[in-house]
Description:
The complex is a heterodimer of chains A (151) and B (723). Chain A folds into 2 domains: 2-76, Beta-grasp domain (Ubiquitin-like (UB roll)); 84-148, DNA polymerase, domain 1 (Orthogonal Bundle), CATH 1.10.150.120. Helix content of chain A is 33%, strand content 16%. Chain A has 5 helices and 5 strands, in the order ββαβββαααα. Chain A has helices spanning 23-30, 84-91, 101-114, 120-127, 137-148; strands at residues 2-8, 11-17, 49-52, 55-58, 71-72. Chain A starts with a strand and ends with a helix. Chain B has 3 domains: 2-209, CATH 3.30.365.10; 216-288 and 346-421, CATH 3.30.365.10; 309-336 and 433-712, CATH 3.30.365.10. Chain B has 18 helices and 27 strands. In chain B, the strands form 7 sheets. Chain B has a 7-stranded mixed sheet. In chain B, strands 13-21-20-19-14 form a 5-stranded mixed sheet. A 4-stranded mixed sheet of chain B has the order 1-2-3-4.
Amino acid sequence: xxxxxxxxxxxxxxxxxxxxxxxxxxxxxxxxxxxxxxxxxxxxxxxxxxxxxxxxxxxxxxxxxxxxxxxxxxxxxxxxxxxxxxxxxxxxxxxxxxxxxxxxxxxxxxxxxxxxxxxxxxxxxxxxxxxxxxxxxxxxxxxxxxxxxxx
Amino acid sequence: xxxxxxxxxxxxxxxxxxxxxxxxxxxxxxxxxxxxxxxxxxxxxxxxxxxxxxxxxxxxxxxxxxxxxxxxxxxxxxxxxxxxxxxxxxxxxxxxxxxxxxxxxxxxxxxxxxxxxxxxxxxxxxxxxxxxxxxxxxxxxxxxxxxxxxxxxxxxxxxxxxxxxxxxxxxxxxxxxxxxxxxxxxxxxxxxxxxxxxxxxxxxxxxxxxxxxxxxxxxxxxxxxxxxxxxxxxxxxxxxxxxxxxxxxxxxxxxxxxxxxxxxxxxxxxxxxxxxxxxxxxxxxxxxxxxxxxxxxxxxxxxxxxxxxxxxxxxxxxxxxxxxxxxxxxxxxxxxxxxxxxxxxxxxxxxxxxxxxxxxxxxxxxxxxxxxxxxxxxxxxxxxxxxxxxxxxxxxxxxxxxxxxxxxxxxxxxxxxxxxxxxxxxxxxxxxxxxxxxxxxxxxxxxxxxxxxxxxxxxxxxxxxxxxxxxxxxxxxxxxxxxxxxxxxxxxxxxxxxxxxxxxxxxxxxxxxxxxxxxxxxxxxxxxxxxxxxxxxxxxxxxxxxxxxxxxxxxxxxxxxxxxxxxxxxxxxxxxxxxxxxxxxxxxxxxxxxxxxxxxxxxxxxxxxxxxxxxxxxxxxxxxxxxxxxxxxxxxxxxxxxxxxxxxxxxxxxxxxxxxxxxxxxxxxxxxxxxxxxxxxxxxxxxxxxxxxxxxxxxxxxxxxxxxxxxxxxxxxxxxxxx
Lengths: 151, 723
């Protein structure tokens, strides 16, 4: 076990875990930020996506010892749940079971920073790594587009 | 009567609210402080109806709290159930709060499965709302000294027709609680529905989109432990002995205990128990047959030729029909096992105490879970509580309570509160799969291309009866034989979204397409001819309404512009009745680099009255994506008893780039709701297979399609990963 200092959602946090503990489990078990989901543990489904330095990363394969930059999770994406992506997801009424949606939104939010005016094809390409087992892909795609049209 | 009712309300609220003590917010918005001030807890029907005096309450603040009993796994029941209550109540939807109810014997059919929740509860929920509406109107009429007939309700208010008198439901709540419960209530005419049939957003959106703890895996309680279980990797083996020394060296590990189906590692965090599980040294011994997919392929051949099949249906004289046939078409269709793979892997929290048990987590059939835990621990059911969290998907997997029972077993052994977590690998290799099945279809055509005989044999691995002997085309053919036979295997199987029909529909619709071709008929005309035969003279008993079949078929033909597709666009048709609803689809396929790509699917659904149009559209779109994805990619194979696929790197699920566009239409057939969680999935594989045939000339005789010739022999379709 070792002490690690992390900046999560703008707050300095300290955790005492083993160095190989994936960021996902530090967030969920140590910090009780459970919005970030476990889906596969091998970076195949995207449910665990968070932002590190503004980039979308898979927290399930990222050891806490490798986390050197501030981390943003779904809980910190916006103060009041009104990030354009969150607004769009609500407007389009995306969630079915909803389990994968935090990861979907984190991927979308990072993508829209670099692609503010994406085409549908670009959206599908960017979201290809996130699985939605309910098959809500049509609405996810639409919501990314709607989010891109918001200020 | 009134006072009893009032007392009941208080007690019930205390009971409900006690479930929240010490826990995180479960499911969605538990009874909050203001709701506990609510003064009435409205019995929703006469006493004889029992068990529905617990659907709703109205607070003096005007907030209507509606309890949603059924597990929510993405079918949107937490929105559609309350919509039905609120419609008849004339509530202001903005003042409705929805609360996930825990397992409670007062609710009947508190489960998610079989697309049956709305059809089953439709009248109960309407009556619950209408009863409360009546009591509010009666209370207002009494207060104003006017006849009830002069009062009406709208948007959370009772209004007096002859004046501008108006009272809110909040203002009337206490007085309404003192009104005698009416024995009968008048329900709205469907044409007066304001909420039902519209698109209402998922009531849990805000909590989902801000990452609130909603799911079983999110549950946390101070002092609880985490556990994970190493189960035998091969079906047909069991634990012989184990060495836990290395596992116990992993920091945070508290205990290692043997359970019925494996070895459980208990510790203080998820990561620690996952790591320690890998350090276990276990030896296994055989406890049953060790089977591989190659064995099943051989077994299917034997079963299809066996004389030990169970006859499911026999109409007319099949042998004579086949003897006299001008043409016989005989084809076989095979599907592999499938994993359910809900995005949230199995998990459950259990706290077994001296003489009571607390269970919290995601499951589709909580009543059975409680019964199973009661049996295991020999603790009466009354001493066991079960709180439902939101389910991160289910698809049938969470109808099986092995993971709930395991959690209780571990807690009872370590005498501590514990959450048992399955890894994705545990989930995918751990059983209760969609059974592998092979069908043999035979059709006898006379010289004019009429189908005079039909045979279907279903052979499955732990499949039960893999036929649906009273479904179409039964009823249309004079001479018909349907039988089935199964192989008992240690590989466990279970219901997978649209059980049996998820593959039977594809096979049957692909076969009928081929029969139509052999008969020289247009596939849709061929189906319509058969439907007309059923209409004219139904052979035996059938379980579908042929007029609804005809209607969805004709509508999808029109919407898809059938037969007039643009050059290079190939159409395939399919129609299926499953559960109690009717869905017809036309898929459109194009060739890209010689490889069939599904571009669009038209779907016409008759599920009776649509409750939530937004949710209904989602169910159909999702079912098409699900049906197409699994037909294209889904495959779980076995080598020496062990699943060969373990995670999403080698168990391929459909992703965003592969989805087709969809065109949706819901028929206003005038029927009450007949369910929609599953019925749109079964037709998809058939429509897609038939369109691929048009595009490539190749029939799809097995799933996954991507392993068939149409994909493997065309350039650019070598199974290369697209992500």
